[in-house]
Amino acid sequence: MTYTENGTTIRPAKEADLRRMWELSFRDKDPEWKKWDAPYYPHEPMAWVAFYEKKDKLVDQEDYWLIEHEGTIIGMVGYYWEHKPSQWLEMGIAIYDPAYWNGGIGTTAFRMWRDHLFNAMPLVRTGYTTWSGNERMIRAGEKLGFQMEARIRKVRYWNGTYYDSIRMGMLREEWEELQNK
Questions:
Q1: 79-84 contacts: CB < 8 A, separation 24 or more?
Q2: Which value, to the nearest 10 degrees, does the dihedral of the CA atoms of residues 104, 148, 116, 60 take?
Q3: How far apart are the first and last CA of the chain?
Q4: Which stretches make up the N-acetyltransferase domain (predicted)?
Q5: What is the sign, positive or negative, of the torsion defined by CA atoms of 136, 122, 82, 31?
Q6: Residue 12 CA neighbour count, 13 Å, CB half
């Protein structure tokens, strides 16, 4: 399954994509994207061989898809179960290449991923967690109709400053209402 809108595509990863995904995500010690994606957690580079050994968790998986823009792999979307028995799913996105930031590509990819998840599963709610230092991620969620469900104040510490943890969410009925507009 593949979704495309305005030159942006999300799709399951293939084995041939892994080298590019490694280059974007785990080759470098201090990649630019990590300043925005939970920088308070350490980033450890990974050798190509070690990354490739994880291929069974990355290739053709339901919970890990690639983002392409005009044929170039630039990031990923994914999800994990916070609590599967109650269908509590959290989603995420990473645009690794800064050349593709601030142009709406991430918002488009995140919308397609949100729609795919609601269409493919009997979810009551989906959401994501970010931090107050990543204003672009908060704005993207607000544009897509996510509600700020929680702000846990001053629990993320990075570069000498405390930040808030932000939990955004959307209920199925809110998503359905957006589909009918």
A1: 79/117, 79/126
A2: 90
A3: 25
A4: 8-173
A5: negative
A6: 12
Q: Please tell me the distance from the alpha carbon of residue 76 to that of residue 110, in angstroms, as a whole number.
A: 10
Model confidence, pTM: 0.94
Q: Does 41 have pLDDT greater than 90?
A: no
Q: Measure the CA angle with vertex 38, ends 95 and 155; round to 5°.
A: 150
Do 26 and 2 touch, CB atoms closer than 8 A? no
pLDDT over 90, % of the chain? 90
| Residue that has been written with the tokens 């005009």 in this structure | 70
Q: Where are the alpha helices (DSSP H) in 121-171?
A: 135-143
Give start and end residues of each alpha helix (H) in the chain: 18-25, 48-52, 55-58, 105-120, 135-143, 172-179
